[in-house]
UniProtKB/TrEMBL annotation:
It comes from Radiobacillus deserti. CDD domains: Riboflavin_synthase_like. This is Riboflavin synthase. It holds the Pfam family Lum_binding. Its EC number is 2.5.1.9. Lumazine-binding repeats lie at residues 1-96, 97-193. It catalyses: 2 6,7-dimethyl-8-(1-D-ribityl)lumazine + H(+) = 5-amino-6-(D-ribitylamino)uracil + riboflavin. PANTHER family: RIBOFLAVIN SYNTHASE (PTHR21098:SF12), RIBOFLAVIN SYNTHASE ALPHA CHAIN (PTHR21098). It is an enzyme of class 2 (transferase). Catalyzes the dismutation of two molecules of 6,7-dimethyl-8-ribityllumazine, resulting in the formation of riboflavin and 5-amino-6-(D-ribitylamino)uracil. GO terms for biological process: riboflavin biosynthetic process. Transmembrane segments: none annotated. It comes from the Bacteria. Homotrimer.
Length: 215
């Protein structure tokens, strides 16, 4: 579990690419502080497991499903990435609940500035707009953000100067792709409201009586 508060920006040191998988070694500093093999680290919002580490870097494997479902396949040697260790029970919770399981890869359609704010318009599938609401939470490349607008084919976020500096989102341009994870509370609520238990999906005599259809 993560919070979407990026701890630092790392850099891809080495990248070994197979047909549908990757092995990434990331140069970092802060996230290495208490790292052990088997720990989870979010790289651009994707939860991955540390397989080895040194005093200046760590290595993770990207499996085929993650390779296909996220933007990690677009990384190159020297790419900058957002990093966050799994949340600590004793730490502050400054963002929102983030699982590190990407829902969709979005495309940046437009980037513009208004005074000190940087606005980014991201395209996602139309049927997934149901997870978005004005001033609701969204996670983009591992960064917890607020939705400032919902359009017919996407949503708008606004980056404060600190987010522009501390994450890779300030470096993004039109046409770039980003990992998007919707608010898990919205997804759980949808599941709760739409789930139908076939075993209990029958009209009973007591229900007909309860709603006045029988005496």
């Amino acid at each position: 579990m993560f919070t979407g508060i990026v701890e630092e920006k790392g850099k891809v040191k080495t990248l070994i690419r197979s047909h549908q998988s990757l092995s990434l070694t990331i140069d970092a500093s802060k996230v290495l502080g208490d790292l052990v093999i088997g720990d989870s680290v979010a790289i651009n919002g994707v939860c991955l497991t540390v397989t080895s580490f040194t005093s200046g870097s760590f290595t993770v494997d990207v499996m085929p499903e993650t390779f296909r479902a996220t933007s990690l396949a677009t990384l190159k040697r020297g790419s900058t990435v957002n990093l966050e260790r799994a949340m600590s029970a004793s730490g502050r919770f400054g963002g929102h609940f983030v699982s590190g399981h990407v829902d969709v890869v979005g495309e940046i359609m437009q980037v513009w500035r208004e005074d000190i704010a940087l606005y980014v318009y991201i395209k996602v599938p139309h049927d997934e707009l149901r997870y978005l609401t004005y001033k609701g939470s969204i996670c983009v490349d591992g960064t917890s953000l607020t939705v400032f607008g919902v359009k017919e084919d996407g949503f708008v976020i606004s980056l404060i100067p600190e987010t522009q500096r501390a994450t890779i989102l300030g470096e993004k341009n039109q046409g770039d792709v980003v990992n998007v994870e919707y608010d898990m509370l919205a997804k759980y609520m949808e599941r709760f409201l739409t789930f139908r238990d076939k075993k209990n999906d029958r009209i009973t005599m007591s229900q007909l009586q309860e709603f006045g259809f029988m005496d």
